[in-house]
Amino acid sequence: MIILNKPYVSDFLIETIKKNGFKVLDSEISRNYFNKEELLSSNEAIKNNDLIYSNSENSIDWVIENLKNSDISRMIKISKDKVLFREALRKIYPNYYFRKVTLDEIKNLKVEELKFPFILKPSVGFLSFGVYPVKNEIEWEKVVQKLNQDIEKLEGFFPKSVVNMSDFIIEEMIDGEEYALDAYYDENGEAVILNIFHHPFFDDKDVSDRAYYTSREIIKKYHDKLKSLLDKIGEAIGYKNFPFHIELRINEDKIIPIEVNPMRFCGWCITDIAKNAWNINVYEYFLKQLKPDWHEILKNSTDDYFYFTMGDIPSSINKSSIKSVNYDKYLKNISNPLVVRKIDFRNNPVFAIVFAKTKSLDEIKNILKLDMKEFIEL
Description:
With 378 residues, this protein is an alpha+beta fold. The chain folds into three domains: 2-79, no CATH class; 97-172, 2-Layer Sandwich (Dna Ligase, domain 1); 177-377, ATP-grasp fold, B domain (D-amino Acid Aminotransferase, Chain A, domain 1, 2-Layer Sandwich), CATH 3.30.470.20. It is built from 13 helices and 16 strands. The strands form five sheets. Strands 3-6-4-5 form a four-stranded antiparallel β-sheet, with helices on both faces. Strands 8-7-10-11 form a four-stranded antiparallel β-sheet. A hairpin with a 5-residue loop joins strand 7 and strand 8 (191-199). Helix 4 packs across helix 5. The mean pLDDT is 92.
């Protein structure tokens, strides 16, 4: 079963559902694409919950409310709560430092209680909202001052099951390069990897999600190592029949997960890029329990870098004051766009999502440096 929700449903996802006859939960969003009689009622959906996929974590509320005592509710709760997730992995990472703090406690924490450097982030979070790298006492003081302002901006944008700015986790800063995977656990708890991305940053203060890329080289280098770790995580938590997007840091042979996003792959339907890169339809692979033959896929692949980039709206801009976006000027920075999705920028934090391929990582590095204000007319 598929649950459709905001913020974005791709045409590719809808086409996949119609082609395969996948069941879809009746909702205000799904009625934009299907007639009511084609959709599952809540009562019917409760009986058809063996495999559940959603394009958005906004659907978590429905699952928790309607499938309270189910295994998928248990898996979602552990995944979404970063403290519970860390506690579940203590056997794998016995020396990893973390602690839970409330918003009120943050304001009164004494500096000598802190172990610099560290990351502060919502215990329940999504993308990079509310994530603060803190290297020293001076940066900590700035973060505490900025926190209330950011909470006001985020309040009401996501359900509390997706982003909750009342409880936070302080955890050690993980060295290394950031990677992300789209994968699922099958009925036996075995991890099946559908894509691996490198998540580059502009500098050490950048926590944005502006670009991710995948390549033949990345899959070859990391598939087996990451599958081995995912199988251990699956065993520790008891994941089964579960789609997820996981972010990790890799420093040589040291691999540490950052967080697991449950019930979905890359958000905003960005996971669709697997079709462009590897000819993998991730929705079909999960709901039909298919496993990629990576040996064959890579043998027939090219040495291109496939990437997606998000045209993000700077937080300093009031979206209601935007007159237009110069998409032509923006796309001049992308040599070979494969898919261009223009997003409703007045109601979302981005104005575009683009899938592209390139022979050079310099193109992606340049995108990380772009000042998005250049493309926005006020």
